[in-house]
UniProtKB/TrEMBL annotation:
Family annotation (InterPro entries): NAD(P)-bd_dom_sf, SDR_fam, TIC32
The name this protein goes by in its record: Short-chain dehydrogenase TIC 32, chloroplastic
SUPFAM superfamilies: NAD(P)-binding Rossmann-fold domains (SSF51735)
Pfam family, one: adh_short
Family: Belongs to the short-chain dehydrogenases/reductases (SDR) family.
Organism this protein belongs to: Iris pallida (Sweet iris)
């Protein structure tokens, strides 16, 4: 309830920021010039705004995208307003294990450190289809692709954190939609079951997986003594390309709930806050909404489920 009230009024929460805060506001005065960041899906929507603001604060930003025209376009837009910005684009298709491996090879050959990884790319409500590797598309793109990507980048992130003494940060774009998954949470035994596919619940499932996964990784990194935090965020409701599979439905929904919607500058705020803000030093395995920590669903906090998802994901990635 408090959530709705602060969302509508834009009143700040304990962090000093709220739903009306923009990505620029929450990173005001922060110097990120020693940091390198990868933003998946950084060619459009919240990801593009995240890339722009990270670059504005001085970070070297790699836009990882499958649509290279859109990615180059996003890069040009950033450079227009910020000619000193350091931005590169690299091809990445998260529904292909092969593309993910190629991306990591290409990134590694650039010989860059990696401080920040923003797992932002996503698809929503698409009709039933399988990824190149034969996994239901929303689970494959939103969760499994990022699972593999993150694992492949982790060595570099650990090395960077160790060599520089600067805390690494992984930010996962989840969603409030994680509350609306399948009843059992994750359908381990029927992940590809077309007959029981429900486009909305499959999205919820993938976004639940994002939180479970961030939490499990956070626990593993703490055990390893790695100076890397992992947190999940719900960015708010923002009209972006994400709505392409449900455009009219979302327009009607937006009309009915218009006071709850944000613009893209506000939509990137929670991501940028969690990626850069000094007040979050050492904070890991948490879920944020409108720049403030919140408790996610009961399922999302289930450690046994998180562990099971990790093993399940590892199996899928290794057989592909
Ligand atoms: N907008 C909201 O209200 C909202 C609410 C909650 C959570 N989120 C989350 O926020 C994140 C960003 O969404 P957005 O609203 O900014 O949507 P968006 O504008 O559609 O951005 C998503 C980006 O992900 C990319 N992408 C999709 N599939 C990909 C793949 N297989 N490989 C590489 N890139 C891929 C898209 O590229 P293409 O154009 O090539 O598809 C696009 O650039 C998503 O994770 C979403 O779940 C958004
Ligand atoms: C960036 O790194 C240099 C060299 O290690 C250091 O002197 C400087 O203080 C760092 N800047 C910030 C903002 O941390
Ligand atoms: C979130 O975090 C985990 C662990 O890093 C990752 O593998 C998972 O798939 C990520 N998903 C997204 C889209 O944020
Ligand atoms: C981890 O990073 C933080 C912030 O950059 C730093 O202050 C801290 O000393 C680091 N901790 C370790 C164990 O290296």
């Amino acid at each position: 309830m408090v959530g709705i009230l602060t969302l509508v009024t834009g009143w700040p929460g304990p962090s000093g920021f709220g739903s009306a805060s923009t990505a620029e506001m929450v990173t005001d005065g922060i110097d990120a010039s020693n940091l390198t960041a990868i933003v998946t899906g950084g060619a459009s929507g919240i990801g593009a705004e995240t890339a722009r603001v990270l670059a504005l604060r001085g970070a070297y930003v790699i836009i990882a995208a499958r649509n290279m025209d859109a990615a180059n376009n996003a890069k040009q837009l950033i450079l227009q307003s910020n000619p000193a910005g350091r931005v590169d684009v690299l091809k990445l298709d998260l529904c292909s294990f092969k593309s993910i491996r190629t991306f990591v090879d290409n990134f590694n050959s650039m010989d860059l450190p990696l401080n920040i990884l923003i797992n932002n790319a996503g698809v929503m409500f698409c009709p039933y289809q399988l990824s190149e590797d034969g996994v239901e598309m929303q689970f494959a793109t939103n969760h499994l692709g990022h699972f593999l990507l993150t694992n492949l980048l982790l060595d570099n992130m650990k090395r960077t954190a160790k060599d520089t003494g600067i805390e690494g940060r992984i930010v996962n774009l989840s969603s409030i939609a994680h509350l609306h998954s399948y009843e059992e949470g994750i359908r381990f035994d029927s992940i590809n079951d077309e007959a029981r596919y429900h486009d909305k619940r499959a999205y919820g499932q993938s976004k639940l997986a994002n939180i479970l996964h961030a939490n499990e990784l956070s626990r593993r990194l703490q055990k390893d003594g790695a100076n890397i935090t992992v947190n999940s965020v719900h960015p708010g409701l923002i009209m972006t390309n994400l709505m392409r599979h449900s455009f009219y439905l979302m327009k009607v929904f937006q009309f009915l709930t218009y006071i709850c919607w944000k613009n893209v500058a506000q939509g990137a705020a929670t991501t940028c806050f969690v990626a850069l803000h000094p007040s979050l030093k050492g904070v890991t395995g948490k879920y944020f909404l409108d720049c403030n920590e919140m408790a996610p669903s009961r399922l999302a906090r289930d450690e046994t489920l998180a562990k099971r998802l990790w093993d399940f994901s590892e199996q899928l990635v290794n057989q592909g």
